[in-house]
Amino acid sequence: MPLQEYIGFAGARLQADVQGWPEDPAVLMLHGGGQTRDMWKPTVESLVKAGRYVISLDLRGHGESDWPEDGRYDLDAYVGDLKSVLNELGSRPVIVAASLGGWIASVALGEEGSHLATGLVLVDAPPEIDVRKARKISDALKKRAETDAGSLPWDVRFLDGFDIESTLARITRSATNIKLPVLFVRGALSELTEHEAATRFLESFKNPEFAEIKESRHLVTEERSDLFNAAIVDFLERRVPRFTPEYRSGSDARTLRDALGCFATGVTVVTAMTGEQSPIGLTANSFTSVSLDPALLLVCIAKSAGSLSSLKAASHFGVNVLHIGQQGISNTFAKPGEDRFAQTPWQRGNHDVPLINGALANFECRQQEIVDGGDHEILIGEVLRAKFEPRRDPLLYFGGKYRRLHFS
């Protein structure tokens, strides 16, 4: 089985098995505490046969991954590991995570944004458990470590690495931010995860699914791997399918929009003055340079935009490129009926166009031509003046969501 090494939080080396065809949709497997990646072997085989590329990771302090000398097994270290691995992958995976792995995934996706993955499968990992039972399990693992000292494939220090109660509270706070397809799997006989606690947890998510595996306790992957594998494969085929969406002329316009959304863009606010000298503006991400000599750029404005007639009538207009801290401005200028400029610091430019203060870049343009572009008007302008701030990073838009640059 091919091996893959990743570099996690504070340089920790993390070991993973990889199986399947790399061009297939990816699935990242995270085991529970006191386990290793070997627990997933039957599931990995099933997923590969179903056309998935599977990465099965050893958490820090487990299996062949580093057992840090400093004993960093707190939740932030584990979350940092997961974020590092996700940033190294060539595509956004579905994360399948059991108990401790599920807590790590829930916090990483809830606090950092669900754009890091395409789906989440949680295996007996809710934020409500009987703490006394959890401590009882922890004590049993410590006793086992004393008996089998030197032969266990995990570092007993991880058991004292994080506080269970604060971890569960953090998961509860972050779970509502996860907008991905979610499946929660529970062993019907589990003593650690109550049925009612699992269903309450599911209310945090948008359109989640719940699978209870009969005749199984907490370790559903071992006790009923056949039913567990069937539940996961069925969920993936329906909610995160393998096929590539395709648009053909005359078919669903939403598919075309999603395809166009694969091209990452910046975010701008296009501005002008009306004949009554009132500022107008709207958010637009269809913006591009046309020519350097002469200096031309263009923006595309929807024909349904309320500001279109005023923009067409103006002799000059401005394009304000937003930085990562101006997402609120983008939202303000995207909503109809907002008193946009009352909420936004701005000033008049040299050519009497409204310029947003502190933008990544401001362009003042003389209107040169307006071209019909289907359901948009293409506004072409000659750049008369431009200024920019080289110390800031751009606000990006990709796949229908705001993004930020990642520096490797």
pLDDT average, as an integer?
90
The CATH architecture term of the largest domain is 3-Layer(aba) Sandwich
Q: Give me the Rg, rounded.
A: 26 Å
Oligomer: single chain
Strand content: 25-35%
Main sheet makeup: 8 strands, mixed
How far the N terminus sits from the C terminus, by CA atoms, comes to: 28 Å
Task: Tell me the name of the CATH homologous superfamily of the largest domain.
Answer: Alpha/Beta hydrolase fold, catalytic domain
How many domains is the backbone divided into? 2
Quickly count the helices: 11
What best-fitting shape do the alpha-carbon axes yield? elongated
Give the number of DSSP strands: 20
Q: What is the fold named in CATH at topology level of the largest domain?
A: Rossmann fold
Can you walk me through this structure?
- This is Alpha/beta fold hydrolase.
- One of its GO terms (molecular function) is FMN binding.
- Keywords: Hydrolase, Oxidoreductase.
- The chain has eleven helices and 20 strands.
- By secondary structure, the protein is an alpha+beta fold.
- It has two domains: 237 residues, Alpha/Beta hydrolase fold, catalytic domain (Rossmann fold); 145 residues, Pnp Oxidase, Chain A (Roll), CATH 2.30.110.10.
- It has an eight-stranded mixed beta sheet, with helices on both faces.
- β1 and β2 form a beta hairpin.
